[in-house]
Write a structure and sequence with these properties.
Length: 81
C-alpha cells in the first residue's frame, strides 16, 4: 500500500503530494510507504504554510492578512502501487 495527501483551503484543493512532491523529502516524489509518513509530511506542509502567512503579515500587515486558523485540512488517500 502507498499513500499520498491532499491539502484543502476552505474546501478547495490547493496541494496534491503525488503531483507536487514531498514537503520535506520523506516520501519519494510525494508517495509514501505508510499513512503516518504521509500524515507527518502533510502536517509539516500545513505548519510551513501557516508560518509563512504569519511572517508575511508581520512584515507588511497592510498587504497580507494573517492566515485563519483551521482554514486548511488534509486528506490522506491510499493509491495503487
Amino acid at each position: 500500500m502507498k499513500f499520498k495527501y491532499l491539502i484543502y483551503k476552505d474546501y478547495e484543493l490547493i496541494y496534491d503530494s503525488e503531483k507536487e512532491g514531498s514537503c520535506y523529502g520523506c516520501g519519494e516524489e510525494g508517495i509514501f510507504d505508510s499513512y503516518e509518513d504521509a500524515q507527518d509530511d502533510a502536517n509539516e506542509w500545513m505548519s510551513c504554510w501557516y508560518q509563512g502567512g504569519e511572517i508575511l503579515n508581520l512584515s507588511n500587515p497592510g498587504d497580507y492578512d494573517a492566515p485563519e486558523e483551521g482554514c486548511l485540512s488534509c486528506e490522506i488517500e491510499e493509491i495503487d502501487d
